[in-house]
Amino acid sequence: MITDVRPLMEINQQAIKLLYRELGVVNAVRFLTQFSEGYGNYTIDRNDILGKKKLDEIISEIKKDGTYGK
């Protein structure tokens, strides 16, 4: 059996499209994230974004304009 060797990027794109189609976007992303170690430092990032704010302050900001930390 002879098959064409395609670039890995092309294969990855096709695989992701298949996952989205078969699993839906949410479940495809959940599947893909299990293979990622992530990046950054959650604790430092959380402190940079939230600081010493209390939960009610954060909720108030979210309700005010629908975003937080921008």
Q: What is the N-to-C order of secondary-structure elements (H for helix, E for strand)?
A: HHHH
Structural domain count: 2
The biggest beta sheet reads: none
Strand content: under 5%
Radius of gyration: 20 Å
Share of helix, binned: 55-70%
- What is the 3D shape? elongated
Give the overall average pLDDT: 87
Instruction: Return the structural class.
Output: mainly alpha
Low-confidence stretches: none
Q: What's the layout of helices and strands?
A:
Layout: H1 8-23, H2 25-33, H3 42-50, H4 55-65
What is this entry, summarized?
The protein has 70 residues and is an all-alpha fold.
Describe the structure.
With 70 residues, the chain is mainly alpha-helical. The protein folds into two domains: 31 residues, no CATH class; 31 residues, no CATH class. The chain is built from four helices and no strands. Helix 1 packs across helix 2. The longest helix is centred in the first third of the chain and has 16 residues. The relative contact order is 0.07. The mean pLDDT is 87.
Keywords:
2 domains, 4 helices, 0% strand, 70 residues, elongated, mainly alpha
